[in-house]
Amino acid sequence: MRLDGKVAIVTAATRGIGLACAQRLAREGAVVYIGARNMERAAERADELNKEGCNVKTVYNDASKKETYASMVEEVIKNEGKIDILVNNFGTSNPKKDLDIKSTEYDEYIRTIDMNLASVFLSAQAVIPHMAANGGGSIINISSVGGIRPDISQIAYGTSKAAINYLTKLIATQCARDNIRCNAVLPGMTATEAVSGNLTPEFQEFFLKHTPIRRMGKPEEIAGTVLYFASDDAAYTTGQIVDVSGGFGMPTPVFGDMIEMKNRR
To answer: Which among 157, 166, 228, 236 is annotated as catalytic?
Structure first.
């Protein structure tokens, strides 16, 4: 029960990495609010966890309605009196339109960047005064390895995640005096509905070819790093950009080809 007595918000938490984070924080004793647009689905997830003895609630947050970031924070403050942990999990991209510099339309580029950055900036801006008044807190941003390793596609998504990495360091620097920590977790390819629905099996296989741990990550493995940053174990850790991708991009660029050659011998 490393988070006993803590209050947390996890955005976009009805499935995938967000849900895994909500589950892990709740099972460690936090009161967890699932931030979601689909309140019916959020309530179902909350009920499932509450049957385990957790304390999970729901709060409305729609990334397309920017005013809901502030209203989300205010509702939780009204109900609980404080917020100790904020996990900014929302992220969006349209792989069919978010292509390379030659093919991506500017409006699509700006739309993706705007939504992804707003999800961090606006929620952090809303929660920081309350965390400061309460003596501190932890903000964890779910970014992506796409924000540190350029790709041949998804130029808007990669740009937005790179900006979130830098924004993480800015928040950490500017809010340290209020005992507010801010860190980012960068998943690689993770076994979620978004991956299975948007990335072909051929692409998945190619990606994993260059991942030393030759499998996709599990959402609960991302949640484990989030738990660390949320807990007092990370009380002296801030401004960190942590890659949780099975080592993707770490070894020599020809790693995958060398493994294949070795296996053929």
So the answer is: 157
